[in-house]
UniProtKB/TrEMBL annotation:
<feature type="transmembrane region" description="Helical">
    <location>
        <begin position="284"/>
        <end position="303"/>
    </location>
</feature>
<feature type="transmembrane region" description="Helical">
    <location>
        <begin position="315"/>
        <end position="338"/>
    </location>
</feature>
<keyword id="KW-0472">Membrane</keyword>
<dbReference type="GO" id="GO:0005886">
    <property type="term" value="C:plasma membrane"/>
</dbReference>
<feature type="transmembrane region" description="Helical">
    <location>
        <begin position="188"/>
        <end position="208"/>
    </location>
</feature>
<dbReference type="GO" id="GO:1903425">
    <property type="term" value="F:fluoride transmembrane transporter activity"/>
</dbReference>
<protein>
    <submittedName>
        <fullName>LAQU0S17e02036g1_1</fullName>
    </submittedName>
</protein>
<feature type="transmembrane region" description="Helical">
    <location>
        <begin position="86"/>
        <end position="107"/>
    </location>
</feature>
<comment type="similarity">
    <text>Belongs to the fluoride channel Fluc/FEX (TC 1.A.43) family.</text>
</comment>
<feature type="transmembrane region" description="Helical">
    <location>
        <begin position="135"/>
        <end position="157"/>
    </location>
</feature>
<comment type="function">
    <text>Fluoride channel required for the rapid expulsion of cytoplasmic fluoride.</text>
</comment>
<keyword id="KW-1003">Cell membrane</keyword>
<keyword id="KW-0812">Transmembrane</keyword>
<keyword id="KW-1133">Transmembrane helix</keyword>
<dbReference type="Pfam" id="PF02537">
    <property type="entry name" value="CRCB"/>
</dbReference>
<feature type="transmembrane region" description="Helical">
    <location>
        <begin position="214"/>
        <end position="232"/>
    </location>
</feature>
<dbReference type="InterPro" id="IPR003691">
    <property type="entry name" value="FluC"/>
</dbReference>
Length: 342
């Protein structure tokens, strides 16, 4: 009897060990690609913010476009078998989810609607009702660009991936095998470099007290945001059919945090001075907004989930995500902006 119990316990221990190993490898992949994705987003925001730009920056629009395109492309490649499940999670949840940012989109929409954006000092609306036009401009452009880029990435890869398809029980084509080998190599490289890259970011953020902290501080906070989003999606998304509760919770929570960090970083005291006078504290607040909140919230996953849902469920999901998040921003950031100023 005792030997039978031991035999029954062995497979259970094995399953636990395998589970820990898989979660550990997933965490390493998310660590590397969240840092890479965060750098990509901040780089695109900086790159597209220049004098005379057609789309006046700073804006997260280009980052959301790129992330949604890559998300669509990855979804189209998934059936071809070129991704391992682990690397697919790393690319979609880790990289694409970190490049795009729902919370930045929400704050951007609030700033334009209330004429409190970084570039609002040089102009004012004919009257306050024009804030509605700005609200709709940011909302529709961001959503339509994100959805269209996702569909374009999906269709483009499907159009040109015919040579990767495996018919019936035939072996995987040579092209698909080559791509899979390259992606497997990238997966191994990411696993090896994940922790060293994080250590480098921490050291650089601690040693160099200059403008580089805009990048390094945010990179340090990016992984916790991505990991929290992954955990929320894993455990909450299956709870409600046709409503990804985990992604919804991550987006709303991240938006609330970004509103608080923005208030602290830009808010004014009663005498007109800044609430936060310490440069280092302000750098940390900006990094928490760009790194933690930017990686905790995602447009690419939101759009991809909406693409797979029935239309009515998609509309409900989008409306709930945007309405709840924006209302909370108005309560947190708006109430302070209209009484003290930001």
């Amino acid at each position: 009897m005792e030997s039978k119990e031991k035999l029954d316990a062995e497979p259970h221990k094995t399953r636990i060990g395998v589970g820990f190993r898989v979660e550990g490898e997933t965490a390493l992949q998310l660590l590397f690609f969240s840092i890479l994705g965060n750098y990509s987003r901040l780089g695109l925001v900086r790159l597209t913010d220049y004098e005379g730009s057609y789309l006046q920056g700073p804006t997260v629009l280009w980052a959301n476009l790129a992330a949604c395109f890559m998300m669509g492309a990855a979804q189209a490649l998934k059936p071809q078998g070129v991704f391992t499940p682990l690397f697919f999670t790393a690319v979609t949840t880790g990289y694409c989810g970190s490049v795009s940012s729902f919370s930045s989109f929400m704050v951007e929409m609030f700033e334009h609607a209330t004429n409190t954006s970084a570039n609002s000092g040089s102009h004012s609306f004919p009257n306050r009702a024009y804030g509605i036009m700005e609200f709709l401009s940011v909302l529709l452009v961001q959503l339509m660009v994100s959805m269209c880029s996702h569909i374009f990435g999906l269709c483009l890869v499907r159009e040109f991936s015919g040579s990767l398809e495996t018919a019936g029980g035939r072996e995987m084509p040579n092209n698909a095998r080559k791509i899979r080998k390259v992606l497997k190599l990238a997966e191994n490289v990411a696993r090896i470099l994940a922790v060293p890259v994080l250590i480098v970011q921490i050291v650089l953020a601690a040693v160099y007290n200059n403008n580089s902290r805009y990048w390094t501080f945010a990179a340090v906070f990016s992984f916790p945001g991505t990991l929290l989003r992954y955990v929320l999606a894993k455990y909450l998304n299956p709870q409600v059919q046709h409503f990804p509760l985990g992604t919804f919770a991550a987006n709303v929570f991240g938006t609330v945090l970004l509103a608080v960090f923005t208030l602290l970083a830009r808010g004014k005291a009663a005498d007109g001075s800044r609430l936060i006078k310490s440069t280092t504290t302000n750098d940390v607040l900006v990094a928490l907004g760009n790194g933690f909140c930017g990686c905790l919230t995602t447009i690419s996953t939101l759009v991809n989930e909406g693409h797979t849902l029935p239309l009515r469920k998609t509309l409900l999901y989008y409306f709930a995500s945007i309405a709840v998040s924006f209302c909370l921003i108005v309560v947190i950031l708006g109430s302070y902006a209209w009484t003290r100023g930001i």
